[in-house]
Amino acid sequence: MVSLSTENLEIGYSEKVIVKDLNLRIPPGEITTIIGPNGCGKSTILKTLARIHEAKAGVVYLDGKMIHKMPTKEIAKKMAILPQSPEAPTGLTVYELISYGRSPHQSGFGRLADKDRQVIEWALGVTGLLPLSHQAVDTLSGGQRQRAWIAMAIAQETDLLLLDEPTTYLDMAHQLEVLKLLELLNKEQNRTIVMVIHDLNHAARFAHHMVALNGGRVIKEGAAVEIMTSEVLKDVFHIDAEVVQDPRTQKPVCLSYDLLDNPRLSKEAASF
């Protein structure tokens, strides 16, 4: 089972440091969700974990090896990443998109072997996309399109999946559709999944492990019951949250919340 961790990781752009001294260990075989306010570094951390973004300092370890010293193809056989709002070339079919996931396993001219076709058919089946395999990706609904990208990622046959806001722009039903698919992959295939999610209730519902970020640092990490508390949400989002137990899932949910008193906002409102 693939392991992923960081040691004293420092991340930023140019001279600006966004994340400093990040020490994370992603629990293998579990679903980890990362939450935090806009601009706190969630997506940048995910890109750095996948070696898409270069760290300023510190180390990312993949299976005990320093990821920046590993060959790209070796990484791609262990880890797949689905970035936020990916786009496919116009006219590219679902089958063709998923076939890109087989690239790390190909050699020579990159022609599909029987094994590649078997995996593509499996990915189409598990994501419910077999009837749409020859349809252009850009003609699909939001939920179907997201499932196609997930199918491409799982066709890489990696034990580790990183996903940046996989439910963005999807309606409620399609959000659950995508998250339940990822939950199924975790349960049936023991895939380790790391997701950045904005919806706190979804993050808590589907996670074994949660990481709460703010200001470029980890505020708290642990099980959903440890993270989804009024105190932690206050520290992370500066809100006054009412957290209760969901009778359907027994997971904590944020029932209602309000902004904490903001002296600057109150002062500006009074000046009108």
From TrEMBL:
Pfam families: ABC_tran. GO terms for cellular component: plasma membrane. It is found in: Cell membrane. It comes from the Bacteria. Coiled coil: none annotated. It is a peripheral membrane protein. GO terms for biological process: iron ion transport. Residues 4-240 form the ABC transporter domain. Gene3D superfamilies: P-loop containing nucleotide triphosphate hydrolases. Its main location: membrane. The keyword ATP-binding applies. InterPro entries: AAA+_ATPase (IPR003593), ABC_transporter-like_ATP-bd (IPR003439), ABC_transporter-like_CS (IPR017871), P-loop_NTPase (IPR027417), Siderophore_ABC-ATPase (IPR051535). GO terms for molecular function: ATP binding; ATP hydrolysis activity. Keywords: ATP-binding, Cell membrane, Ion transport, Iron, Iron transport, Membrane, Nucleotide-binding, Transport. PANTHER family: IRON(3+)-HYDROXAMATE IMPORT ATP-BINDING PROTEIN FHUC. This is Fe(3+)-dicitrate ABC transporter ATP-binding protein. It comes from Bacillus canaveralius. The lineage of its organism: Bacteria, Bacillati, Bacillota, Bacilli, Bacillales.
